[in-house]
Specification:
The complex is a heterodimer of chains A (258) and B (249).
Chain A (H helix, E strand, L loop, with lengths): L4 E7 L16 H11 L1 E7 L2 H4 L3 H12 L5 E5 L8 H10 L5 E4 L1 H4 L8 H10 L3 E4 L9 H10 L5 E3 L8 H10 L3 E5 L4 H10 L5 E3 L12 H9 L7 H15 L6
Parallel strand pairs in A: 1-2, 2-3, 3-4, 4-5, 5-6, 6-7, 7-8
Helix pairs in contact in A: 1-10, 4-6
Chain B lengths: L8 E6 L1 E2 L4 E2 L1 H11 L3 E5 L2 H5 L2 H13 L5 E5 L7 H12 L4 E4 L1 H4 L9 H10 L3 E4 L8 H10 L5 E4 L10 H7 L3 E4 L5 H10 L8 E2 L9 H10 L4 H13 L4
Parallel strand pairs in B: 1-4, 4-5, 5-6, 6-7, 7-8, 8-9, 9-10
Antiparallel strand pairs in B: 2-3
The chains are: A alpha/beta (258), B alpha/beta (249).
Chain lengths: 258, 249
C-alpha cells in the first residue's frame, strides 16, 4: 500500500526540561529525514519540553522548529492550566506563533481534565479554530471518558485522544468517541488487535494515526518508522486505511498539507 | 526468514479465541515456520484464563502434545479457586505443562492479597517459571510484581509486556529490585525501552526474553524489532531464546 501519512502525534526533541523520557537530540532536517524514511507526508509536532515545564520559551522553540518546513510540520503547543498567564500564553500561541492546537498531558502536567482552569484556555482554542490533543490511556488523570467530559464542555473544539486508550482503556475510548461528536481517536501506541477494533467500531471519519516519534534514543526514530510500517500490516482495507492515515487528519487540519 | 545461530523461543502467546483476537494453532505454527521461531510457550484464551481453567489446560496440553515439541504449555488456574486451583495445576503438570501463566486483571485478584501464594509455592516445588501479565493499574504492575518476586526468590517471574505502555517507566526499577524477574520484549521499542534494559548494569540482555504476545500483535513486527536492536550476536541469541530455555525442562 502506498498511502501518504499525516502523522498526528509526534514530538520535538526535549531541549531543556525533560529530565527523563527525553530521547536524543535532532534537528528539523533530521526530523524531515525521518518523515521521509517512514513514508510520512506531514506531521503534527507536539511540545515535548513543555510537558515537563510549560513555559513560553518552550512554545517559542516549538514554533521555530516547525517553521523550518511549514509544508510538512504544524505545531501544537502547551500551557499548564495551573500556571498564571496560561490563558494569555494560549492566545499568544495561536495569534503570534501560528500554533494550531493545544497538547495536554494530564499525568505529566498534573492537571485533571475536570479542572475549571482548563475552560478559558479551551475557549481560546475554540476562538481560533484550534484542536486539543490529550494524552490518554492512563488512570487516574488521563482516561478517555474524563477527556470526553472535557470535550462535551467545549463542543466546538475537536478533541483528540492522543493514544486511543493504549493497552488498557481502548474499549472505554471507543465508547467515549462513539458518544461524543467532537472526540477524535489517534491510533498511537495501541496494540494491533485493539487498533483493528477501533477502526471497525468508531466513526471512521474520526480515526487518526500517530507514531509518537521524537522519544527515541536514535535520531532516525526507529520505533516510529516501525509503527508507520506496522499499521499497514493490521489487515485493514486500503480505502479505510487511507482515510485514517491521510484523509481524516487532513480534513481535521483544514486541508493541510496541500 | 531464518535466524541463523539462534534458537528462537517465543515466551508467550495465547491460542484459541479471545474476545477480540484469535490464534488457531495451525496459524501459530505456520507463522512460526515462516518467521523461523522454533518453539513457543502457549497459554489458553482469555475466558479460560479467567474462568474455564480446566478446559484451557486441556486445550494447551493437547496442542503441545500434537506439536512435536514446537509448543510447550502454560498452566492456568484462577487463584480464587483455592485448593481446586492447585488440583488444576497438578493435572496440567501431569499433562505436560511447564510453566504457570497469571493475569491479575482477567483473574480479578491482587498480587499481594495472598491468593496467588499457594500457586507460587507449587511453581517453586515444580521449578516452573511464572508469567505475570503487567501494564494495567492498579493490580498488574511491574513494581508490585517485583515485591512479590522478592517474597518468592526461588521462582523466576516473567514480567509479561514489561508494563506496556505507560508503566514501562517502572520496568527497570522493578528489574533492579527483584533479581528473579525477567523482562519480556512484546510491544517494547528497541530504541527506547529495550535499549534501556540492555544498558542498565543490573538488567542487561541476560534478563530479557522474546515474546510476540500473539494474537494481539503482528508477530513479524515483534520479531523484527529484536533483529533491528543493535546487539552482539551472543546477546541477541540470549534474548531470542537462551534466557528462557534455561528455565524450562
Amino acid at each position: 500500500m502506498d498511502i501518504p501519512i499525516v502523522d498526528f502525534h509526534t514530538h520535538t526533541p526535549a531541549w531543556d526540561h525533560a529530565s527523563w523520557l527525553a530521547g536524543t537530540a535532532f534537528t528539523p532536517a533530521d526530523f524531515t529525514a525521518f518523515l521521509d524514511s517512514a513514508g510520512i507526508r506531514a506531521a503534527v509536532v507536539l511540545s515535548h519540553d513543555g510537558l515537563f515545564h510549560a513555559t513560553p520559551e518552550a512554545n517559542d522553540r516549538l514554533a521555530e522548529f516547525v517553521a523550518a518546513d511549514p509544508d510538512r510540520m504544524v505545531a501544537f503547543g502547551t500551557v499548564n492550566a495551573r500556571y498564571p498567564g496560561a490563558v494569555e500564553e494560549m492566545e499568544r500561541c495561536f495569534g503570534t506563533l501560528g500554533i494550531r492546537g493545544l497538547k495536554i498531558h494530564p499525568w505529566l502536567q498534573g492537571v485533571s481534565m475536570h479542572e475549571p482552569s482548563l475552560d478559558p484556555i479551551a475557549e481560546v482554542v475554540a476562538a481560533h479554530g484550534g484542536i486539543v490533543l490529550c494524552h490518554d490511556g492512563t488512570p487516574p488523570y488521563a482516561t478517555a471518558t474524563q477527556i470526553a467530559a472535557f470535550a462535551r464542555r467545549h463542543p466546538t473544539v475537536p478533541v483528540v485522544l492522543g493514544h486511543a486508550g493504549l493497552h488498557d482503556t481502548w474499549r472505554e475510548a471507543i465508547a467515549a468517541v462513539t458518544e461524543t461528536a467532537n472526540l477524535y481517536i489517534c491510533l498511537c501506541g495501541v496494540p494491533p488487535y485493539a487498533g483493528r477494533q477501533i477502526i471497525e467500531r468508531c466513526p471512521t471519519d474520526r480515526v487518526l494515526f500517530g507514531s509518537d516519534a521524537g522519544l527515541s534514543d536514535q535520531v532516525g526514530q526507529a520505533y516510529a518508522v516501525a509503527r508507520a510500517h506496522e499499521i499497514t500490516r493490521w489487515g485493514v482495507d486500503e480505502a479505510t486505511l487511507r482515510r485514517v492515515l491521510y484523509d481524516n487528519p487532513r480534513d481535521l487540519l483544514g486541508g493541510w498539507p496541500q | 526468514m531464518t535466524i541463523s545461530g539462534a534458537h528462537v523461543l517465543d515466551a508467550h502467546v495465547r491460542i484459541g479465541a479471545s474476545r477480540e483476537a484469535a490464534l488457531p494453532v495451525d496459524t501459530l505454527l505456520a507463522t512460526m515456520n515462516r518467521l523461523g521461531i522454533d518453539a513457543a510457550l502457549i497459554a489458553p484464551p482469555e475466558r479460560c484464563i479467567a474462568y474455564h481453567n480446566a478446559e484451557g489446560n486441556a486445550l494447551t496440553a493437547e496442542s503441545a502434545a500434537a506439536s512435536g515439541d514446537r509448543l510447550r504449555a502454560y498452566a492456568v488456574a484462577n487463584p480464587w479457586r483455592g485448593t481446586d486451583a492447585i488440583a488444576d495445576l497438578d493435572r496440567a503438570r501431569s499433562a505436560g505443562a511447564v510453566a504457570l501463566a497469571v493475569d491479575p486483571v482477567l483473574q480479578g485478584f491482587d498480587l499481594h492479597d495472598g491468593l496467588l501464594d499457594p500457586l507460587l509455592r507449587k511453581a517453586s516445588e515444580w521449578n516452573w517459571p511464572v508469567y505475570v501479565r503487567t501494564g494495567t493499574p492498579p493490580t498488574a504492575l511491574p513494581l508490585p510484581l517485583a515485591s512479590l518476586a522478592r517474597r518468592h526468590p526461588d521462582v523466576t517471574f516473567i514480567m509479561g509486556r514489561s508494563g506496556a505502555t505507560d508503566f514501562w517507566i517502572d520496568a527497570v526499577p522493578a528489574l533492579r529490585y527483584a533479581p528473579n524477574l525477567l523482562a519480556d520484549t512484546s510491544y517494547a521499542p528497541w530504541d527506547t525501552v529495550l535499549s534501556g534494559f540492555g544498558a542498565d548494569p543490573a538488567v542487561g540482555p541476560g534478563r530479557v526474553v522474546f515474546a510476540t504476545d500473539a494474537p494481539y500483535t503482528v508477530p513479524d513486527v515483534e520479531l523484527q524489532r529484536i533483529l533491528d536492536w543493535p546487539l552482539p550476536a551472543a546477546d541477541r541469541a540470549r534474548v531470542l531464546g537462551e534466557n528462557l530455555a534455561h528455565l524450562l525442562p
